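User: Could you go from structure to sequence for me? I need the amino acid at each position, not a summary. Structure tokens:
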């Protein structure tokens, strides 16, 4: 069973093309065995840079704060962290769909592999892999621990999010609701 952590919302909307991401991070239900996000380091997606439309595609970037994954269950079942970022919309509300009249496709959103490091002196990096992708409109595994590995505490430092804003997008503020999830198993 998973429960939802709602991370702080970045209040700055981007003028013209890209906008704020709201992150809902998933962790284990209270009392359940890890893996889980350390609640003091939940991931937060920062604002993307402003874009001024000029008739050509524009690149904008955003960031995700580093966060810690902890697995002290002793089961060595492995775990994986996924990220999902739907299309951006120029509406409001939790999923940015209220009153939306335009969409900015998120299929060009790219992120290089996160940097993963032990968060303490007892954690081994054996069996841990990080992967970058383009297009997070379906959930992508960005970090995983293979079966037989993953016990300990890991600091995950995501790379910059890069979004190409097409020249044909309507001017306005756009947002989306990203989901970063962790689950047990490979």
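Assistant: Here is the amino acid at each position, in order:
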């Amino acid at each position: 069973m998973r429960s939802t952590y709602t991370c702080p919302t970045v209040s700055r909307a981007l003028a013209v093309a890209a906008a704020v991401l709201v992150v809902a991070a998933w962790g284990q239900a209270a009392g359940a065995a890890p893996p889980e996000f350390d609640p003091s380091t939940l991931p937060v997606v920062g604002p993307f840079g402003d874009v001024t439309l000029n008739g050509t595609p524009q690149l904008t970037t955003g960031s995700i704060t580093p966060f810690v994954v902890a697995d002290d269950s002793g089961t060595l079942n492995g775990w994986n962290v996924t990220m999902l970022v739907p299309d951006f919309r120029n509406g409001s509300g939790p999923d940015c769909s209220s009153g939306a009249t335009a969409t900015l496709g998120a299929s060009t959103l790219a992120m290089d592999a996160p940097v993963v490091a032990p968060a303490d002196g007892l954690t081994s990096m054996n069996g841990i892999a990080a992967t970058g992708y383009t297009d997070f409109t379906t959930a992508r595994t960005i970090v995983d621990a293979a079966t037989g590995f993953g016990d300990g505490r890991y600091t995950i430092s995501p790379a910059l999010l890069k979004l190409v804003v097409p020249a044909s997008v309507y001017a306005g503020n756009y947002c989306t609701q990203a989901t970063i999830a962790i689950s047990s198993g490979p």
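One structural detail worth keeping in mind: The chain has one domain: 2-184.
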